[in-house]
Design goal:
The complex is a heterotrimer of chains A (about 300), B (about 325) and C (about 300). Chain A has about 300 residues and is mostly helical. Chain A is built from 12 helices and no strands. The model of chain A has no long low-confidence stretch (mean pLDDT about 85). Chain C is about 75% helix and about 0% strand. Chain C has about 300 residues and is mostly helical. In chain C, helix 4 runs parallel beside helix 8. Classes of the chains: A mainly alpha (about 300), B alpha/beta (about 325), C mainly alpha (about 300). Chains in contact: A-B, A-C.
Chain lengths: ~300, ~325, ~300
C-alpha cells in the first residue's frame, strides 16, 4: 500500500511538469505582449516593465525561472491587478470557491447515491423512470441555464433568496451550491443506479440472500461498497467538472471566487493570473485524483492484496 | 451407504408438487421446469442429474426463492408442511440459511470479494442464532476446521481472493453448515474443482449427512459423484423428470432411453478401449417451443408413433418411476 | 465452417470477409430492433430531425433579419400581432430568428468539433491499441497525463491566447475532447486485433496501416457511433459555456450559449430572451443524450444494466 502510494506520488511529477510547461508556452506564443492594451507607453517604461517581469530574458531562461518559482508555489505578480501578487489573489478567491465547491460535492455525493440506489432497487418502476428522466435533465440542462432560471423564480419572483452576492451566509450559498451540484447529482445517480443493478445481479448477492439475511442488510453490508466504487473513482473527474462549473456559477451569482478572477484575468489578458490559476487548479485536481485513487485502493481489498505481493 | 429409507415413514421434509418455472425473455416465455414432483425425508440424499439447461438449477432456485426477476414459479414446495412458494421474502428468510442452506456452483464468485471470510460467516450465525460476535467467530473457526481448512484462526481473517478454488468451496460448505441445516442444497459443488478436491468435498457432505441427519439435494451432471453420496436419483430432461429411483435402479436397470444414453456416455475403465465414448446424438429441445408428446422423441433411438403423445409416468413396486411407454411389464 | 472445410482457403481475405459478414449483419439488425424499441431514443431522433430542419430552413422563412433592430418593439413580449412570435430583445431584434441562427452555429460547432475529436481520438487510439507494447504504454500514459489536467481551463487559455474566432473554437474544443474516444477505441482495438480475420490478413502480408484502415476501423464503428452521439452534446455544451462567459462566439454572430448569456442580463425585464434559447439548447442536449444512450444500449447490450 505504501509502495503503491509512493509510486503514484512519483507519477504525479511528469503530469505537473506537463501542466506547467503547456501553460507557460501557450501563454508565451500568444501574439502581443501583456501591456499592449495600455497604449502609448513610452518605450523606456515598457522596457522597464518588461525588465521588471523578466520578459526581456530568453524564453528558456524565463521558463526555468517560472518553474523555479512554481515549485515553491510562487506564481509571481499579477499583470493587471497592480500591487497584487497572484498568490494573494488565489488566497482571496480560493476559500470562497472551495466552500461552495465542497458543499456542492457533499450534496452531490449524498443525494446522487441515494437517488441512484432508490432507482436501482425499484428498477423499471415509475420511480426509476422518473428519477432517471430527471437525471438526464440534470445532465442536459447546463448550469448557466438553470442558474438564471432559479434566480428568476426563487429570488426575483418569490424573493426567498438573494439573487447573488457573497457574505459567507448560508442564504447566499443555497442557490450557487444547488446549481453547481445538479449535474454531478445527475451523473452520480445514473452511475450508482447502473453499478448497483450490476452488483445486485452478482453471485455473492445471491449467496447473501440464500443466507436468509434481510434485504436491507444484504444491500447495506454486501452491495453498497462495490456499488459505490465507480462513484468513488468518478469523484476525481467530478471535481474537475465542478471547478469548471464554478467559473460560470461565480459569475452568475457575483461570487468573488477564484473562477471570477480567472475569467476576469482571461478577458483582460492577465497572463500571470490565468497561468497561476490554471496551474493551481491543475495541481489541485491532480492531487485530488491521487487521493481518490488511494481511497479506491483502500476500499478494494483485491488491489490492496495485489500490491502486497 | 445408508439403506434405502423404506422404513422411514415420517412426514417428508420437503415435498415439491407440480412445480413449474418459466422465464419471460424478449424471445418469449422459456419453460425451464414443467410439472416436477419429488419429495425428500430427513436424512435423504437426492441427486438431480441432467444436461445443462435441463432445469435442475432453476428447480432449487425456485425452492429457495432466488429466481431472477423475470422468472416465475408455480406449484407447491412444502418444507416441514409449509409452502415455501407462498411465503414472502421475510418469511422465507426465517428458513433460508438456517434450516435450508445452499452451496453454489461457482465458488470463485459466490463469496463477497469485499468482505473478510469471518464477516461473511459470522453474520449467518449472529442473525439466525442470536450469538454474539465472539461466540459466532469461535463457531465459524470450528466449522472451518471441520472442513479441513488449515490454520483457520488466521485464514478466517482473509479475503476470498486469498483462497484457492477448492478452499473457497470448503468455505462455502462450512458457511452452509454453520446453522446445522435440515436441508442442504448443493448446486454442482464440485464442478469447478480438481478431482482430488471433488472427492474431499463429497466426503465432507456424506460425513455431515451421517453425523447430523441432514437431507441433501445434490445437483450435478456428473454421475460419478452421485454414486458416492446419494441414495436416490432424479433424472431431468428439458424441464421434466424423466426417471427417478434408487442409485442401484438408475445405474443397473435404467428404464428411460435418456438415462440409458446418459449412462452410456460415462467413460468407464472396465470397458475395452475400442468401444469409445458414446454420446446422445442431437440437442435438447428449444425451451421456447417444446414439442408435444415425449420431449426426448427426436433424439431417442427407440422412438415410435406412440411417442407423439405425452408418455405416462410408470411406477413399479420398488419406487422406481420413469416417463416412457417402454420398459413396463414387457 | 463447412465451406472452408471442404475447399482449401485460397484467399484469406475472402475467408476474412465471410466471417465478417456472417458475424456483422445480424448484430446490426439486432441493434436496430433494440433501438426502435427504445421510445425515448426514437422520439428524440424525430425531435432532433425537426430541430435540424427548423434551424437550417427556419431563418429563410422568417421575414426578420437577425440583426434588424425593430425600434418600435424593443423588449417586447412574444406576440403574433407584432410578428415577433418569440418576442424581441432590448434593442428590438427578433428572438426567434436569432435563436434559429444561433442554433446553426451551435450545431455546426457540435458537428465540426466532434469530427476533429473523432479524427484525433480514433487514429490515436487505434494506433496505440494496434501496436501495443511500449508504444501503447507511452501513448496511453500521455492520455492519462492530459486527462488529469483541468481541460476547460485549457480551452479558455487557448481562447485567450489565440483570440476568439470560430475556427479556433472548433479546433480548441476538439483538441481537448478526444481523450475518451482514444481510450475507448484503443480498448476495442486491443481486443479486435487478435481475432482470426485480422491474423489471416496479417499472415497474407498486408501492411499495418492497411489492416487498421480496412479491418479495425470498420469494426470500431459501433462504439464510435455511440461516442460521437454523446460527444456532440458535450461539445455544444462547452461552446455555449464559453460563449456564455464571453469567450466564445463574438457579435454579430451568435450561438445558443451567447443568447442565453444575453437573456440572463435582461431576464428581469424580458424573461423570454432567456427562456427561448434556453429551451432550444436544452431540448437539443436532452435529445442527443437520449439518442446516445439508446444507441449504446442497442449496440452494446452487455452494458444495458
Amino acid at each position: 500500500m505504501i509502495k503503491h502510494s509512493l509510486q503514484r506520488l512519483l507519477g504525479l511529477i511528469p503530469t505537473m511538469l506537463m501542466l506547467i510547461t503547456v501553460a507557460f508556452f501557450l501563454i508565451r506564443v500568444a501574439p502581443g505582449g501583456p501591456f499592449d492594451s495600455e497604449k502609448l507607453l513610452p518605450p523606456e517604461i515598457e522596457a522597464n516593465l518588461n525588465a521588471k517581469y523578466h520578459l526581456d530574458e530568453p524564453l528558456v531562461q524565463q521558463y526555468f525561472r517560472y518553474l523555479g518559482q512554481v515549485v515553491v508555489l510562487d506564481f509571481g505578480p499579477s499583470f493587471q491587478y497592480k500591487d497584487w501578487t497572484v498568490n494573494e489573489l488565489i488566497a482571496q478567491g480560493f476559500p470562497v470557491s472551495a466552500t461552495v465547491g465542497l458543499a456542492a460535492m457533499i450534496l452531490a455525493f449524498v443525494v446522487g447515491t441515494l437517488l441512484g440506489i432508490a432507482a436501482a432497487l425499484r428498477q423499471n418502476s415509475g420511480i426509476d423512470y422518473s428519477l432517471m428522466g430527471f437525471a438526464m435533465l440534470g445532465i442536459s440542462v447546463p448550469n448557466f441555464v438553470i442558474a438564471p432560471i432559479l434566480i428568476l423564480l426563487l429570488a426575483v419572483y418569490a424573493g426567498w433568496l438573494p439573487a447573488g452576492g457573497w457574505d459567507w451566509s448560508v442564504a447566499n450559498m443555497v442557490l450557487p451550491v444547488i446549481t453547481l451540484s445538479l449535474p454531478a447529482i445527475a451523473y452520480i445517480a445514473r452511475l450508482t443506479r447502473g453499478s448497483m443493478i450490476e452488483v445486485l445481479h452478482s453471485n455473492f448477492i445471491r449467496t447473501a440472500r440464500a443466507k436468509g439475511l434481510p434485504e436491507s442488510v444484504v444491500i447495506r453490508r454486501h452491495a453498497l461498497r462495490p456499488a459505490l466504487l465507480p462513484v468513488i473513482s468518478f469523484l476525481g473527474p467530478a471535481t474537475a467538472a465542478m471547478i469548471s462549473g464554478s467559473v460560470v456559477i461565480e459569475r452568475i451569482f457575483s461570487i468573488p471566487g477564484l473562477g471570477s478572477y480567472f475569467v476576469q484575468g482571461a478577458l483582460n489578458r492577465d497572463y500571470t493570473l490565468v497561468m497561476g490559476v490554471v496551474i493551481f487548479y491543475g495541481m489541485l485536481i491532480i492531487i485530488l485524483n491521487f487521493i481518490v485513487d488511494l481511497v479506491y485502493a483502500w476500499l478494494n481489498p483485491k488491489i490492496r492484496y495485489d500490491e502486497k505481493r | 451407504m445408508k439403506p434405502a429409507n423404506m422404513e422411514n415413514t415420517a412426514a417428508p421434509l420437503l415435498e415439491v408438487k407440480d412445480l413449474d418455472v418459466g422465464f419471460d425473455t424478449p424471445e418469449g416465455k422459456v419453460h425451464a421446469v414443467n410439472c416436477l414432483n419429488f419429495s425428500l425425508k430427513a436424512g435423504d440424499a437426492l441427486a438431480i442429474v441432467g444436461e445443462s439447461g435441463s432445469g435442475k438449477t432453476q428447480t432449487v432456485m425456485a425452492i429457495m426463492g432466488l429466481l431472477s426477476e423475470n422468472g416465475e414459479a408455480r406449484g407447491e414446495a412444502r418444507f416441514k408442511g409449509q409452502d415455501l412458494m407462498k411465503m414472502s421474502t421475510a418469511q422465507l428468510n426465517t428458513h433460508r440459511g438456517k434450516e435450508i442452506a445452499m452451496i453454489f456452483q461457482d465458488p470463485m464468485t459466490s463469496l463477497n470479494p469485499y468482505l473478510r471470510i469471518d464477516k461473511q460467516m459470522i453474520e449467518v450465525v449472529m442473525h439466525h442464532q442470536g450469538l454474539n460476535k465472539s461466540e459466532a467467530r469461535a463457531h465459524a473457526v470450528e466449522m472451518l476446521r471441520a472442513v479441513r481448512i488449515p490454520d483457520p484462526e488466521r485464514r478466517i481473517r482473509q479475503y476470498p481472493h486469498e483462497f484457492s478454488g477448492g478452499m473457497r468451496q470448503r468455505v462455502m460448505v462450512a458457511m452452509g453448515l454453520l446453522c446445522e441445516p435440515d436441508l442442504l442444497i448443493a448446486d454442482e459443488p464440485t464442478t469447478a474443482l480438481d478431482v482430488t478436491v471433488q472427492a474431499q468435498i463429497s466426503h465432507l457432505m456424506s460425513a455431515l449427512r451421517e453425523n447430523s441427519n441432514t437431507a441433501i439435494i445434490l445437483i450435478t451432471h456428473d454421475l460419478g459423484v452421485v454414486a458416492g453420496l446419494c441414495d436416490r436419483v432424479l433424472v431431468m430432461y428439458a424441464g421434466e423428470a424423466v426417471e427417478c429411483g434408487s442409485v442401484e435402479q438408475i445405474y443397473y436397470e435404467p428404464k428411460h432411453p435418456y438415462t440409458q444414453g446418459l449412462l452410456a456416455s460415462v467413460p468407464r475403465l472396465d470397458q475395452p478401449e475400442e468401444t469409445g465414448l458414446n454420446s446422445i446424438p442431437g440437442n435438447p429441445p428449444n425451451l421456447l417451443a417444446l414439442p408435444k408428446g415425449c420431449k426426448f422423441r427426436d433424439r431417442c433411438p427407440k422412438a415410435h408413433d406412440a411417442c407423439k403423445e405425452k408418455p405416462p409416468m410408470q411406477l413399479d413396486e420398488q419406487r422406481h418411476a420413469w416417463r416412457c411407454f417402454l420398459g413396463g411389464a414387457a | 465452417m463447412t465451406k472452408s472445410a471442404d475447399k482449401p482457403v485460397i484467399d484469406p481475405f475472402e475467408a476474412a470477409l465471410e466471417v465478417h459478414d456472417i458475424k456483422g449483419r445480424s448484430p446490426w439488425e439486432d441493434a436496430w430492433h433494440r433501438l426502435l424499441k427504445n421510445r425515448a431514443a426514437v422520439y428524440s431522433a424525430f425531435i432532433m430531425a425537426f430541430m435540424l430542419v427548423l434551424v437550417v430552413f427556419g431563418p429563410m422563412l422568417i421575414s426578420w433579419e437577425s440583426d434588424f433592430t425593430d425600434w418600435d418593439y424593443t423588449s417586447s413580449p412574444p406576440s403574433i400581432e407584432s410578428g415577433h412570435w418569440f418576442g424581441t430583445d432590448a434593442v428590438g431584434r427578433d428572438i426567434m430568428v436569432r435563436t434559429l441562427e444561433g442554433g446553426r452555429i451551435s450545431l455546426l460547432v457540435g458537428l465540426v468539433a466532434t469530427i476533429v475529436s473523432l479524427v484525433i481520438g480514433v487514429s490515436y487510439g487505434a494506433t496505440a491499441g494496434y501496436f501495443g507494447g511500449a508504444t501503447d504504454r507511452i501513448m496511453m500514459r500521455v492520455v492519462d497525463i492530459i486527462y488529469a489536467l483541468p481541460f476547460m481551463f485549457f480551452v479558455i487559455l487557448l481562447m485567450v491566447v489565440f483570440g476568439r474566432n470560430i475556427l479556433l473554437i472548433f479546433v480548441a474544443i476538439g483538441a481537448v475532447n478526444w481523450l475518451d474516444m482514444a481510450r475507448i477505441v484503443r480498448g476495442q482495438t486491443l481486443s479486435l486485433k487478435n481475432t482470426e480475420f485480422i491474423e489471416a490478413a496479417r499472415a497474407c502480408g498486408v501492411g499495418d496501416w492497411a489492416i487498421i484502415r480496412r479491418h479495425i476501423i470498420p469494426n470500431l464503428l459501433g462504439v464510435v457511433i455511440v461516442y460521437v452521439t454523446l460527444t456532440i452534446p458535450q461539445v455544444i455544451l462547452i461552446e455555449s459555456f464559453l460563449s456564455f462567459l464571453g469567450l466564445g462566439i463574438q457579435e454579430p454572430m451568435s450561438s445558443w450559449g451567447a443568447l442565453v448569456s444575453d437573456g440572463a442580463q435582461d431576464m428581469e425585464s424580458a424573461p423570454w430572451t432567456l427562456v427561448v434559447p434556453s429551451i432550444f439548447l436544452t431540448v437539443t442536449l436532452y435529445c442527443f443524450n437520449y439518442i446516445g444512450d439508446g444507441l449504446r444500449d442497442a449496440l452494446d447490450p452487455k452494458d444495458r444494466l
